[in-house]
Specification:
The complex is a heterodimer of chains A (253) and B (304).
Chain A (H helix, E strand, L loop, with lengths): L2 E7 L3 H17 L5 E8 L14 E6 L5 H12 L6 E5 L3 E2 L4 H11 L4 E7 L5 E3 L2 E4 L4 E4 L15 E2 L6 E5 H6 L12 H11 L4 E11 L11 H12 L6 H4 L5
Parallel strand pairs in A: 1-2, 1-4, 2-3, 6-12
Antiparallel strand pairs in A: 4-11, 5-12, 6-7, 6-11, 8-9, 10-12
Chain B lengths: L1 E10 L6 H6 L4 E8 L6 H7 L3 E4 L7 H8 L6 E4 L4 E2 L4 H12 L5 E4 L1 E5 L2 E2 L10 E6 L3 E2 L9 E2 L6 E3 L8 E6 L2 H14 L11 H15 L2 H4 L2 H23 L32 H19 L4
Parallel strand pairs in B: 1-2, 1-4, 2-3, 6-12, 7-13
Antiparallel strand pairs in B: 4-9, 5-13, 6-9, 7-8, 10-11
Helix pairs in contact in B: 5-8, 6-8, 6-9
The chains are: A alpha/beta (253), B alpha/beta (304).
Protein name (chain A): Glycosyltransferase family 2 protein
Pfam families (chain A): Glyco_tranf_2_3
Keywords (chain A): Signal
């Protein structure tokens, strides 16, 4: 199988429907027909019916709310049970550009990377994500150029220390090797942690810059409830163990 | 694997629904399928999943024979699920957490249950959260005769904890494929249930009252949309059917107040000239019903 797409979602069915519609378009544009789509219903009060999003979409239902990491890992286990080449983690509030997946795969290949993110913009056309940098001396990840109008930000391909898990294509073999996202994070920083662990194994991380997809960002209710706890875990783990972009300059392809 | 939990499920031609149940309970230390002479491949499915299969006589009300098979359980905890129920992903961890949290202070746990019509989950009043006491310390719960009676905790009701629905493990009940199936099942339950044999306590009007109450409590379009009226009507009619069955089994002891066996969904359709046996006009009952609904709506905090 070419790709397993995993979309965790707590509610937001209308937004998820739009997300899936554009996902199908982007998959077709990228020429990927051999794929599985797993929506992880993460304790939505009104569970998604099994046919809610059409026959091509599988629903994996949790009644008890799970961390983002656990939801993603469970979805990947379900979708990629028979093995597949790529895992695509996608948020339910991302509206993909028709060429987004094709560009992510192309960037991944061009940068010889194992992980590829997507350039995301807020609805007002400012950058939400085009790569994650890490500031020092404490390891604080931040989105480069966030809130800058997207026409002002270069579309040159480059590598990063991390990309957001809102739209992230990963080699399935690497995902397996690293045991997926670390489930010790309640909600947030698990994606950056994954990328840093991938880099420790010698893999590159890149982000497709050619097209913009829309990311509403943090639409899930209670999204920030566990942010502090997650950040504390991240800092404790990575303080002194990762490079500061601000000290050593930007990584280049 | 949860070494302290045994699953018991009764089956009767459950080949269509059993795979989903078995697919979501593989973590149980032991799974016992009590089969009532299935001939549709149910036993093969259970055997292939590594379950123990026990033969049981064919009965109309499964609850009546649950107790005899509960004695077979040797683990500390028992989980009882019906063959048309299943659990969500993460159930193993959720049950382990429940046992750790409530085991020291309680004997049994009431799990909220989603009832499904087709693929949709019902959320209306009385359909949800529909707590079911199905996870319990072995030997602490006894079932009663009849359909869908609540089991009794040997240590008293204080030993039972009901989980708040939000964020808790639920039982998922693929109850009915459509309204026809609901009607068929309700009628089956009504025909095979136990009824009081004391003629003196029989009052058909009680069934009529229960029917109105069922309608008033179940009519919840905010939760289930247009389906709600249909479901409420079926469950109200179920009470009328039960009243008639009870009446006949007692040898038709009294004259029925026939006017109240007419459709009850909308009281505005009831002829204004109709009167009850005691001479009171129907309109009075109509007002009572509306009053009752207003009270219920107030309790639910919804606008009229």
């Amino acid at each position: 199988m070419e790709m397993t797409i995993v979309i965790p979602s707590r509610g937001l069915a209308a937004l998820l429907t739009a997300c899936l519609r554009l996902l199908h378009v982007a998959l077709a544009e990228a020429g990927i027909s051999d794929h599985r789509i797993v929506v992880v219903d993460n304790a939505t009060p009104h569970p998604f019916a099994s046919d809610r999003f059409g026959p091509q979409v599988e629903i994996l239902r949790f009644d008890v709310p799970q961390s983002f990491s656990h939801a993603c890992n469970a979805g990947v286990r379900r979708g990629a049970a028979q093995g597949c080449r790529h895992v695509f983690l996608l948020n339910n509030d991302v509206l993909l550009h028709p060429r987004a997946i094709a560009e992510m795969l192309a960037a991944k290949q061009a940068a010889k990377a194992a992980v590829s993110g997507a350039r995301l913009v807020f609805p007002d056309d400012t950058i939400q994500h085009c790569g994650v940098r890490i500031g020092g001396p404490r390891p604080i990840p931040y989105h480069e150029h966030i809130h800058t109008p997207t026409p002002l930000v270069s579309r040159r391909l480059r590598t990063y220390q991390a990309v957001t898990g809102a739209a992230m294509i990963i080699d399935h073999a690497l995902y397996d090797e690293l045991g997926g996202l670390d489930e010790c994070y309640p909600f947030a920083y698990e994606d950056v942690d994954f990328c840093l662990r991938a880099r420790q194994k010698g893999h590159r991380i890149t982000c497709a810059q050619a097209v913009d997809s829309v990311h509403f960002a943090s639409m899930t209710p209670g999204r920030f409830r566990h942010e502090d706890e997650s950040r504390a875990i991240f800092e404790a783990r990575w303080a002194g163990r990762c490079t500061s972009d601000t000290e050593e300059g930007l990584y280049k392809c | 694997m949860l070494s302290q939990v045994t699953l018991i499920t009764h089956t009767r031609n459950s080949a269509k629904t059993l795979p989903r149940l078995l697919g979501t309970t593989g973590w149980a230390a032991r799974r016992i399928i009590v089969d009532m002479h299935s001939n549709d491949g149910t036993r093969d499915i259970a055997a292939a999943a590594g379950c123990e299969i026990i033969d049981a006589p064919l009965v109309d009300a499964v609850d009546e024979i649950r107790n005899e098979f509960l004695d077979m359980v040797e683990t500390e905890w028992t989980l009882v699920l019906d063959s048309d129920e299943f659990l969500p992903a993460g159930a193993e961890q959720a049950i382990a957490d429940l046992i750790t949290r409530y085991g020291p202070s309680h004997d049994a746990i009431g799990l909220p249950r989603y009832n499904m019509l087709g693929d949709g989950h019902l959320h209306g009043s009385l359909w949800y959260p529909d707590h079911q006491i199905r996870l319990f310390k072995t030997g602490t719960l006894r079932w009663q005769q009849g359909h869908h009676r609540r089991p009794e905790a040997v240590g008293g009701p204080g030993r039972i904890v009901k989980l708040p629905p939000e964020g808790s493990l639920h039982i998922h009940h693929a109850a009915y494929r459509n309204l026809e199936e609901l009607i068929g099942k309700q009628l089956h339950y009504a025909l095979t249930d136990h009824y009081d044999t004391d003629q003196d306590t029989f009052d058909f009007n009680e069934y009529v009252s229960r029917a109105y109450l069922q309608y008033a409590r179940r009519f919840d379009p905010h939760a289930d949309g247009e389906l709600s009226g249909a479901l409420a009507t079926i469950m109200a009619w179920d009470q009328i059917m039960r009243g008639l069955i009870h009446w006949e089994r007692l040898g038709r002891p009294s004259e029925l107040p026939a006017v109240f066996t007419l459709p009850i969904a909308t009281t505005s359709e009831v002829p204004k000239t109709a009167v009850r046996r005691d001479g009171r006009k129907v309109r009075k009952l109509q007002l009572k019903r509306h009053k009752l609904r207003r009270i219920l709506q107030k309790l639910r905090g919804r606008p009229h």
